[in-house]
Structures are given as structure tokens and as C-alpha cells.
Amino acid sequence: RSMDQRRSSAPHPVTHDELNRLRKSWKDKPTDDATGLKLAKKLVEAASVLADENGTADKRARDKNKEKFVLEAHKIIKKLAQQQYGEAMFYLADCYGQGQLGLQVDTKEAFTLYQGAAKAGHAPSAYRTAVCCEMGHEEGGGTKRDPLKAVQWYRRAAALGDTPAL
């Protein structure tokens, strides 16, 4: 395969045009949660890819740009999570778990979000809820250790079709 073919199969870095397209299509159809989430994830990517303005931005400008992208992403994710969109709740929970999106690590908040999405039928969240119950506070699960509850959540996740839970 030629170099060009290989390059086109690799995921392309986010562009301002792509962000604007996503912003517009989400604005035109605000009930399209999947587009909202895609926009938020692309904004997070933009914080790494576009913040330096092709190498023209100094550190201060770069940091400001990063912050702008991340703040916009956070606002979108929060809104989607409040609307009980499982994928967004899962993503936000991961961000709390790892201290991303400019958030402080908060395993309790992560657990609450996983459990909320799990109750709404989001399979990967049911699996994460089970893992949290198995780990307990000591190991960063964000909830008290409860092996019985963990088994119940693994069963629920498996019933929802989560492969790792099976």
C-alpha cells in the first residue's frame, strides 16, 4: 500500500471545520445526543490538537485555548448526563474517575454516574458499577465494598449484553 492509502485509514486529527459542522448539526437537532457527545469528545481532542494554533501560539494562548475547548466539552457532557444519556454519563464518570475535563478525581461521583446510567440500561455502566462494588472505597470504587451487590450488577450487565460481564 502506498503512503497515502495508509494515511487515509488512520483517524484524522480534528479540525475547526469539523467542530463547526458538529456544532451546527447539534444546534439544528438538539435532541441528537450522539452528535452532542461526539462534539464533546472532538472538543477534548481539539484541546490537544488545535490549542497551539499550528505552533503559532505561546504557552499562555495555548493554555487559554485548551481551557476553552475543555470547558465547552464539559458543558455539553454535563447537559447530556443531566438528560440521562447513558453514554454521556459513562464518559463523565470516566472523567471523574481519572480527573479529566479539568475535574478533580471524585470516585464517589463516578460511581453515582455509573450506577445512574446502569439503572437506565447502559450495559458498560452496569459492568463498571459491579467493578466499583467489588473494589470498595479502599481500592477507589467510590462506594462501600459489597460482593453481593457486585454479583447482581455483573448479572444485570451480562443480561444487557456486556461482554466483559459475561
Tell me what the structure shows:
By secondary structure, this protein is mainly alpha-helical. Helix content is 68%, strand content 0%. The N and C termini lie far apart (39 Å). The protein has helices at residues 3-9, 16-28, 33-49, 59-82, 86-98, 107-119, 123-135, 147-159. It is globular. The model is unreliable at 1-8 (pLDDT under 50).
Helix/sheet category: mainly alpha
Largest sheet: none
Query: What is the chain-wise order of helices and strands?
Result: HHHHHHHH
> How far is it from the N-terminal to the C-terminal residue, by CA?
39 Å
Classify the helix fraction into a percent range.
55-70%
Rounded average pLDDT? 92
Number of helices: 8
Please tell me how large the radius of gyration is: 18 Å
Strand content: under 5%
Write down how many β-strands occur, each being a DSSP E stretch of 2 or more residues: 0
Shape field: globular
Unreliable parts: 1-8
Task: Please give a quick description of this structure.
The chain has 166 residues and is mainly α. The protein has helices spanning 3-9, 16-28, 33-49, 59-82, 86-98, 107-119, 123-135, 147-159.
Descriptive key words:
8 helices, globular, 166 residues, disordered N terminus, mainly alpha
Q: What does the secondary structure layout of this molecule look like, with pairings?
A:
Layout: H1 3-9, H2 16-28, H3 33-49, H4 59-82, H5 86-98, H6 107-119, H7 123-135, H8 147-159
Helix pairs in contact: 2-3, 3-4, 4-5, 5-6, 6-7, 7-8
